[in-house]
Automatic annotation (TrEMBL):
Single GO BP term: system development
Repeat positions for PPR: 5-35, 36-66, 69-103, 131-165, 201-231, 232-266, 267-297
A molecular function GO annotation: RNA binding
PROSITE patterns, per database record: PPR (PS51375)
Entries under NCBIfam families matching the protein: PPR
Record-given protein name: Pentacotripeptide-repeat region of PRORP domain-containing protein
Gene3D superfamilies with a match to the protein in the record: Tetratricopeptide repeat domain (1.25.40.10)
Protein family membership: Belongs to the PPR family. PCMP-H subfamily.
Keyword Repeat among UniProt keywords: yes
Length: 413
């Protein structure tokens, strides 16, 4: 170029920065004859997104005072948040001379991602003038951490303050309805989408399929699924999982085949759902074949959840020795869920001999989960070995392990 100005310099620096090539971005940054606040912001953002927060902070401290605006501060705070460094983010956030809506939302989302919903709410309550983005950050954070009733309460307050829901809002509320298993709430949100004319984007459609599937309305889930112009792996997984959970294993496997034919690559979540469907349907041969496909066909890492599904599959089919041998040859240490699947199968098939072999293995688990102890106690009781059943209960008391009482969720209007 015969002539270059600050815009063209910023464009080329921003291009390298956004593509993660901070080496060349730095060379260009040092060569630029005149820097703007945008130049500094692009570089700080580039280092933050690449995970080099030390370099990002070093550059932030070099920004001339007249160019250090609210965006410059926000980019670094968000960089700390995105990398899970909430202590550093909070220190910088508190030092900000002024704050925009994005940095408030970033802090709320960061604390929610860490599971600290109380601190996220504390940040939210400090916002003097809120907007829909701030409300969506709080509602999404509540939903992600399982505080679904609080998410709906926040939504009610959001509407009282005069803010209209959008695609982000309803996607979070659909997820909350799915977690609660509340079909009525989910249908109300679906009606709201139509009433408010909210765009049915990929996230909203996925949320509807997931909500209807988890709430047991497979017919509506399938109707929305079939009408989608494009389906990603999240949507396929939601539909397959819904069919599997509600005992429609044949349909789940058929849909998995359709997913493969569509060209959409299944992921680890897909295989958990499909293997669960095989376990519930008693499709041992098909389950073993699908399990082997994970690594051989798709190159996916097999996790402990997949081994747990396979143990459950073999156990339900009465192939307890194979299930036990699989656990012993797993490349990772079995957890209480895996052992629980085997013990559950032992109880179903009244296999007390294998229980004795498993008992010592469970003893080395570093867990306070009551499930293995309760299962062992029930197995002994079912075979009239009351002394051993009582011993299991006494061990729970000695180890200060309490059994959570069962409860039911009832809603009415």
């Amino acid at each position: 170029m015969p002539e270059r100005n600050v815009v063209t310099w910023n464009a080329i620096i921003g291009g390298y920065s956004k593509n993660g090539d901070m080496g060349i971005a730095c060379v260009l940054f040092e060569q630029i004859p005149l820097r703007s606040s945008f130049t500094w912001t692009e570089m700080i953002d580039g280092f933050a997104r690449s995970g080099d927060l030390v370099a990002a902070r070093r550059l932030f401290d070099r920004v001339p005072s007249e160019m250090k605006n609210v965006v410059t501060w926000t980019v670094l705070v968000d960089g700390y948040v995105s990398n899970g460094l909430m202590k550093e983010a909070r220190e910088l956030f508190e030092a900000m001379p002024e704050r925009n809506f994005f940095v408030w939302s970033s802090m709320i989302a960061g604390y929610c991602k860490k599971g600290d919903v109380k601190e996220a709410r504390s940040i939210f309550d400090r916002i003097k003038v809120r907007n829909a983005v701030n409300w969506n950050a709080l509602i999404a954070g509540y939903t992600q951490n399982g505080f679904c009733k609080e998410a709906f309460e926040a939504f009610d307050r959001m509407q009282v303050e005069g803010f209209e829901p959008n695609e982000v809002t309803v996607a979070s509320l659909l997820s909350a309805s799915a977690q609660l298993g509340s079909l009525d709430s989910g249908k109300q949100i679906h009606d709201l989408i139509g009433h408010k004319g909210i765009k049915l984007n990929q996230f909203v459609l996925n949320g509807l399929v997931d909500m209807y599937a988890k709430c047991g309305d497979i017919s509506n889930a399938r109707k929305i699924f079939e009408g989608m112009p494009r389906r990603n792996d999240v949507c396929w997984n939601a539909m397959i999982s819904g069919l599997a959970v509600h005992g429609r294993s044949d349909e789940a496997l058929e849909l998995f085949c359709q997913m493969e034919e569509s060209g959409e690559k299944p992921n680890q979540v897909t295989f958990i759902s499909v293997l669960s469907a095989c376990a519930r349907g008693g499709f041992v041969k098909e389950g073993l074949r699908i399990f082997s496909m994970m690594k051989e066909k798709y190159g996916l890492a097999v996790g402990i959840e997949h081994y747990g599904c396979l143990v459950d599959l073999l156990g339900r089919a009465g192939r307890l020795t194979e299930a036990y041998n699989l656990i012993k040859t797993m490349p990772m240490k079995p957890n209480d869920v895996v052992w629980g699947a085997l013990l559950g199968a032992c109880r179903i098939h009244s296999e007390t001999e294998l229980v004795e072999r498993v008992k010592d293995e469970i003893g080395i688990l570093d867990t306070h989960n009551n499930a293995p102890y309760v299962l062992l106690s029930n197995i002994y009781a079912a075979s009239d070995r009351w002394e051993r059943a009582e011993k299991m209960r006494m061990m729970m008391v000695e180890n200060e392990i309490q059994k959570e009482p069962g409860c039911s969720s009832i809603t009415w209007q």
